């Protein structure tokens, strides 16, 4: 038996994305967003949505670029702070002791201490209401060597990405792998005639 | 030291979304997508992206509606199968023994056995390349009573949502809560002068 929860923005899990930008003074800034995801494979594109009232909004509109950092468990409190405080009120990254370098591909900063970052050029902007959705075309992804194996594949146990639960408002690490895509479902596939 | 992984569609984690539609014969169908997320709070909107080659694509274009089911741990193999097989080849839901009812709000089916479903009206369609992104305005969310407490709040331990790791291609349950949003970051906030 199902009960109605009403019309709400609820999906589980969401990523915990730190959006990096340069403001109109050229200062690096960052904010945390959970409204986002992958939206295309070729070209590789992602979405991130944020409110017009944010300090980051103007930077995105002006520079047409952002970096998107995947939050790992060690940066839980830092990412939460980046979602609470505003770049208008001071140097958030400095407060956290985080350092940035300029991306060579897009007009946005890379936060060096975060393990995985997407460098994105904004290709579409959609005003959806309270949030504006920025579709970014991924120009490159950079990852710390420590979260890659010798073949350059990602090591999730090293990356330790965080997931977020909207409305419940909690952050979670990933449990163990419970199955593999395009494999776990094979047991339901029709058996081929012998 | 960071290494370049190239331009790829990578974010961690993604949700595991089962997209419900009616085909041109009025038959219920479902496919699994990981390219999606929340994109606006007011009005509440979500995105889901899929390829033109999918059977579901034509249904979305025709009916301008979909349901989005959050996959829970018990439905891991079912959702993986729904992402492997095509509705062109047979009754996927029937194969899985899953049953549907018609949504009263949008022209799409609700899979009764999945614990949480969003009923969505398509408000924007964006051809991004290999994938087309369908922005859906959430008309209502319905949840099994067993995943709600007496106040109607979601119980994550009962819901057990799955997260997906692109490229690594594994499904994961959520670990324990490691912190609470708008709270864990307080330790970085400037202390107010006494």
Fold and architecture overview:
Chains A, B: Homodimer. Chains A, B: Keywords: Flavoprotein, FMN. Chains A, B: GO terms for molecular function: FMN binding; oxidoreductase activity, acting on the CH-NH group of donors, NAD or NADP as acceptor. Chains A, B: Its cofactor is FMN. Chains A, B: Belongs to the flavoredoxin family. 2 copies of one chain form a homodimer. With 194 residues, chain A is mainly beta. Chain A has a single domain, classed as Pnp Oxidase, Chain A, CATH 2.30.110. Helix content of chain A is 14%, strand content 43%. The first copy, chain A, has 4 helices and 13 strands. The first copy, chain A, has helices at residues 55-63, 76-84, 92-96, 156-159; strands at 2-6, 14-15, 17-22, 28-33, 36-40, 45-51, 65-70, 100-102, 109-111, 116-127, 131-144, 163-165, 170-180. In chain A, the strands form 3 sheets. The first copy, chain A, has a 7-stranded antiparallel beta sheet with strand order 4-3-7-10-11-6-5. The longest helix of chain A has 9 residues, at 55-63. Chain A is globular and about 65 Å long. The termini of chain A are far apart. The mean pLDDT of chain A is 96. The interface between A and B is large, with 105 and 105 residues. Strand 1 of chain A pairs antiparallel with strand 11 of chain B, so a sheet runs across the interface.
């Amino acid at each position: 038996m199902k009960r109605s929860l009403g019309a709400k923005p609820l999906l589980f899990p969401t990523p915990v994305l730190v959006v990096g930008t340069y403001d109109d003074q050229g200062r690096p800034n960052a904010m945390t967003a959970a409204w986002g995801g992958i939206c295309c494979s070729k070209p590789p594109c992602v979405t991130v949505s944020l409110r017009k009232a944010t300090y980051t909004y103007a930077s995105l509109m002006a520079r047409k670029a952002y970096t998107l950092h995947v939050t790992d468990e060690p940066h839980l409190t830092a990412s939460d702070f980046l979602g609470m405080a505003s770049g208008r009120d001071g140097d958030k990254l400095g407060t956290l002791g985080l350092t940035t370098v300029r991306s060579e591909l897009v007009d946005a900063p890379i936060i060096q201490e975060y393990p995985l970052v997407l460098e994105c050029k904004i290709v579409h902007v959609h005003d959806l209401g309270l949030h504006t959705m920025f579709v970014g075309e991924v120009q490159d992804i950079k990852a710390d060597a420590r979260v890659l194996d010798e073949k350059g594949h990602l090591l999730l146990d090293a990356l330790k990405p965080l997931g977020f639960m909207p409305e419940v408002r909690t952050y979670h690490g990933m449990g163990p792998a419970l199955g593999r895509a395009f494999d776990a479902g094979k047991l339901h596939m029709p058996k081929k005639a012998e």
